[in-house]
Amino acid sequence: MLIDTHCHIQFKAYNEDRDEVLKRCTEKNIILNAVGTQLSTSKLAVELAEKYDWIYASVGLHPIQEYVMQVEEEATSFLSRGEQFDYVAYKKLAEHPKVIGIGETGLDRFHMPDGVAQELVMEKQKQVFLQHAKLAAEVGKPLVVHVRDAHREMINIISNFKSARPTGGFQISNSPGVIHCFTGNWEQAGQYLDMGFYLGFTGVVTFSPKKTDPKPQEDLLEVLKKVPLNRILVETDAPYLAPQKYRGQRCEPWMVGEVVTKLAEARGMSSDEVAQITAQNAKKLFDFA
Ligand SMILES: [Zn+2]
Fold first, then answer.
1. How far is the CA of 61 from the centre of ligand 1 (A)?
2. For position 147, which CATH number holds?
3. What range does the record give for the signal peptide (predicted)?
């Protein structure tokens, strides 16, 4: 059994052939977390989770959905909406028994809207993230955190809310959530780990280093080798980030097996062992029944 702890199987990238994709997942005995990025995709994730016992959902507003902008990503492009975080509507979804996580939410300095000062965008992202953290504490479910080009800021925010000052006093649990699609270095990883977070690894770990700039991939490999085994989660972020073997294709949740293989190789373990340990970790953080 493999658990894809972060994918977007509810996205329209699968509207034409979702049943076939789901069939491929069941053939490989996959359990998955369908992660919402706005209210509509959060609702769709919950609907899928109601329909299939092996699908769970997370609900949240992705930072790039907070402003209207055109987003180009590998295998897809879309117009983000400029949505406000509706605490009441998200709370209603968050209380659903098949909802296991709050997010994805976080900071993204990579995608910036035109015509808005960067500080304003980052401040808004921070406030929306804190709303998610409040909701997570309120419903007792872990955070699913997105960080792109903003580790320093995120580490600052989290270390502050661990001391509960800027949040209005709500408490964050000792297993506050996962830094999904972690691609940072060991120093950053260590800080998240110290604050109780799990690290989620995607197909990015299977990519070949860029010839012009191999450092980020070398740093990531160092993290893969050093991160404590009991804090590792595996994920795909499908439809994005297909592993090297399938690069350029639409990613599907069963491809999480490639991430497991890479981890096994980095740690000198068998794929079965890594699959088992990461599934245990996923069940410890998230309420996969
Ligand atoms: Zn995602």
1. 11
2. 3.20.20.140
3. none
